[in-house]
Fold this protein.
Amino acid sequence: MTRVLTLPIRLVLFTLWFAGQIVQSSWTVLVDILTPGLTTTPRVVRMPLDSRTDLHVALIGVLITLTPGTLTLGVVAHDQDGQALLVHSMYHQDTESALADLRDMERRMLLALSLGDRP
Amino acid sequence: MGQVLALLGAAIFVAAAIGLHRLPDPYTRTSAVATAAGLGITFIVAGAAFLDPHLSNTVKAIIAIVLQLATSAVGGMVIARSAVLSGHRFSSNTDPGEITDQPERNG
């Protein structure tokens, strides 16, 4: 019950956090584009998802694409019943840091959206 | 306030256009531009709402922004996915990582 009551608060907090992320990464991209030379280190990473419902998978894909510098390329099957996203990232130095950032975003999204007890 | 926001949005579009020209492959271009366009529209619409702030205008602006963000993200994903499927190359400094074993690659 408390989780239903706190849902709007969690949604607002997540929206604010996400807006901050967008501004921050937009700034990175804009500065790189408008200054001489490109500092991109593009890579494609496979991100196993904790999300189980299609809605959550679609939502995390959209959120990743909305963040400038990262781009969802597709959803692939992972293990038995899980799914993974293929994500193109422009500014992460290595696969580990890219995955850490993406998983952090997914964790926050699930935290903001979950009803009832933790899955 | 409204004019500043609208101008900021226009500046973002200019930067996105420059990025379209400078970035090396379809993936980085989509990544930078699809979202920059979403952000630019957001600023311009928000600026227009600030110029004439009524409740109905605010509601319309929020609806426009949400729809624009959602559709530009989906559009960006579709462009990127079709680029992968039609075999466009990643720029030479890309670490392709896991993409090589994507089963639909040759579909």
Residues 55-85 of chain B form the longest helix (31 residues). Confidence is low (pLDDT under 50) at residues 101-107 of chain B.
